[in-house]
Amino acid sequence: MELKEIVYKHIRETGGATVSSKGKLYNLKRGYAVGVAPDYTTEAWDYWIRANINSFFNRVLPILCADPRNHMGIWIDNSDGKMYLDVSRIYDDLQEALDTAKQYGQKAIYDFKNKKVILL
Predict the structure, then answer these.
(1) Residue 46's pLDDT is what?
(2) What pLDDT is stored for residue 86 in this prediction?
């Protein structure tokens, strides 16, 4: 199965996905995901995401490879149904995640343990 199909299936089942620079899908149980490259954040509807996961991954691959803390993140905003693709980092500490999110002008972070979006 192709990366886009694996990732898309995971998104539909869990509401999001985190992918390494090697194309590995993570199944994280704790921590907080924060977008760290706002210029690359893409907001789109479901059908576009499914068709373009691979091209987005290839577009951000240099950023993912530049820092091992970087991942491709995809999440669904349940308030409007839109999906977001971004370059994200995972933080163990909530305050560090919130501070980083504010630094990068993010509207939310994702809490893996509680499986919920935390709006800022």
Answers:
(1) 76
(2) 94
The domain spans of the chain are 3-119
Q: At what angle do helices 46-66 and 3-14 cross, to 10 degrees?
A: 110
> What is residue 2's predicted lDDT score, i.e. its pLDDT?
81
To 10 degrees, the CA torsion angle through 44, 113, 115, 57? Answer: 20
Low-confidence ranges of the chain (pLDDT < 70): 1
Amino acid present at 8: Y
User: What was the pLDDT predicted at 107?
Assistant: 87
- Taking the alpha carbons at both ends of the chain, their separation in whole angstroms is 36
Q: What are the residues whose beta carbons fall under 8 Å from the beta carbon of 24, sequence distance 6 or more?
A: none
